[in-house]
Amino acid sequence: QAQLIESGGGLVQAGGSLRLSCAASGRAFSNYIMGWFRQAPGKEREFVSRISWSGIRIDYANSAKGRFTISRDNAKNTVDLQMNSLRPEDTAVYYCTAGRVVGADYKPAYWGQGTQVTVSS
Prior knowledge:
By secondary structure, this protein is an all-beta fold. It has no helices and eleven strands.
């Protein structure tokens, strides 16, 4: 079965860095737009970043611009999210996604189970 598995989450102090990794299995996701969402306690799930199959088109939420970097390796079927200058408000469960653009919207078709990121003061 096709699935996405995240890793790399954990506890880090404010100003620190984490690198999240997402490994896909069961099928190739080279032709999918890969991305990351997150959900903080008591908050709605929000978009963080996405990357096209070629790696040329990349988008970030305003909260991630200048601090986070998304990348993918289609041969390895993986996508990473490098997070620098972390802040307590970045604390959330981070989800890896694979999907398509439908109209003007990015619609994930596959979701990972999530990995917890906690940023302390």
